[in-house]
Specification:
- By secondary structure, the chain is of the alpha/beta class.
- It contains twelve helices and 14 strands.
- It has a seven-stranded mixed sheet, sandwiched between helices. It has a four-stranded mixed sheet with strand order 1-2-3-13.
- The N and C termini lie far apart (58 Å).
- The mean pLDDT is 95.
- Bound molecules: pyridoxal-5'-phosphate.
- Pyridoxal-5'-phosphate binds next to α4.
Length: 417
């Protein structure tokens, strides 16, 4: 006999209501500066996306990818104006960034006939065995004996903590140039690709110096390896251009781009891979998932692209990012605990002295009605400020005012102890 389960009152999600950039919890309003799990690019309630999803739900919630091929092709055409010129093919068979990155790795390996993957210290490329294996953080790996054979990690372009102990203007861009040494001395000699986040997101919102991408591309060309841009966080307008690699990181000229998170607009899971036409090498059985290219994901993806176009979201991000960055810099001037304000578009951050301070500050910010996130799952010092792309100028002012209150409380508290 199946035991009857008593449903507990209050275990549903009725107390949560999302509107625009706000999450209301039991009637208390928060500005969501984490954009959900960094996936609510259009906030909680973009009407056009929701209406299209309702329509699709009324017809059918699932179709196998055999039936959705032409929709995927239409969306790729719609995306065309936002792609770097070298990109000419796609593989939309994923709903998570982790597996999209694994797909990109498979493409690079199959196309080159080589095995090894370079990635950066502090990088995060996902939670599956393979994508964790190429990520540059021991804390996610130490409990498992699941190494990714052929993963080679190289120092990140983290100027505030330069691995080579250089200063930015006189560094010779060693973090890009010395890649050659890692290929020569740390790899198996069979390197297929480098995978890189244009802004290292989970690692602490680390923004490489602009010239980094040019030098990195030249170095990869010299040693003959492909570049995969993991744009799971930076894609779909987050940095003010559609992809970072069509904007501030355009000199990266990636051979393959992966996307997820914000691509679903209001948090609908969807992910994909974009590549040079000659890298379109996979057979359907070599990378495919049950829910990849399902109609709800594709509708959300299509509507998100249309929304970005129709509402001029990229220009809007540029317009509101400038006052946000100025406001954060102003807070850094007034509060000594705030350092290293940095960011591109609506992907901004600052540091507090320690990771313990970060944990304390996040609680204080919540009291002021701010949902914020730290970095590296609590191991880092960064506070990330990344509201939905549709945040208005007055909401940016509100966000800054609430941050000001939270920092005031934080400094009073930490001086007292
Ligand atoms: C840059 C980057 N790549 C890949 C992933 C993995 O994406 P998902 O959680 O959808 O598998 C993440 C997730 O945080 C990410 O930030």
């Amino acid at each position: 006999m199946i035991p009857s389960v008593e449903l507990k009152a209050g275990t549903d999600f009725a107390k949560y209501v999302g509107r625009g950039v706000h999450l209301h919890v039991d009637g208390t309003q928060y500005i969501d500066c984490a954009s959900g799990t960094f996936n609510l690019s259009l906030g909680y309630s973009a009407g056009e996306v929701i209406a299209a999803l309702h329509e699709q739900l009324d017809r059918c919630s699932h179709l196998s990818s055999d039936f959705t091929k032409s929709k995927s092709a239409d969306i790729f055409t719609l995306l065309h104006e936002f792609l770097p010129p070298q990109i000419g093919a796609f593989w939309f068979r994923d709903i998570t960034g982790s597996t999209a990155n694994e797909c990109a790795i498979r493409i690079a390996q199959k196309a080159t006939g080589k095995s090894d993957i370079l990635s950066l210290f502090l990088s995060h490329h996902g939670q599956t065995v393979g994508s964790t294996g190429v990520s540059g953080n021991a804390f996610r790996q130490r409990s498992f004996s699941l190494p990714f054979l052929g993963s080679v990690k190289i120092p990140a372009p983290d100027c505030a903590n330069c691995f080579y102990a250089q200063t930015p203007d006189h560094c010779g861009m060693l973090c890009a140039r010395r890649l050659e040494d890692f290929v020569e001395y740390a790899s198996s000699g069979q390197v297929a690709a480098l995978i890189i986040e244009p802004v290292l997101g989970n690692g602490g919102n680390i923004v490489p110096p602009r010239d980094y991408f040019r030098v990195l591309r030249a170095t990869c060309d010299d040693v003959g390896i492909l570049i995969i841009a993991d744009e799971v966080q930076t894609g779909f307008g987050r940095t003010g251009s559609f992809f970072a690699s069509t904007g501030f990181a355009k000199d990266l000229k990636p051979d393959i781009i992966t996307f997820a998170k914000g691509a679903g607009g209001i948090g609908i899971p969807v992910a994909g891979v974009l590549m040079r036409p000659d890298l379109d090498v996979l057979e359907p059985w070599e990378h495919s998932t049950t829910s990849g290219a399902n109609p709800l994901s594709l509708v959300a993806l299509e509507q998100t692209v249309r929304y970005i176009k129709r509402h001029g979201v990229l220009d809007h991000v540029e317009a509101v990012a400038a006052p946000l960055l100025r406001g954060l810099a102003d807070l850094a001037n007034r509060y000594p605990c705030v350092t290293n304000v940095r960011g591109v578009g609506l992907m901004q951050a600052f540091d507090l002295p320690t990771s313990i301070d970060v944990a304390m500050f996040l609680t204080m910010a919540k009291r002021q009605g701010l949902i914020l996130r730290g970095s590296r799952y609590g191991f880092g010092r960064a506070i990330k400020v990344r509201p939905p792309l549709i945040i208005s100028a007055s909401e940016v002012n509100d966000l800054l005012a609430r941050l000001d209150h939270a920092l005031y409380d934080f400094e009073r508290e930490t001086c007292r102890s």
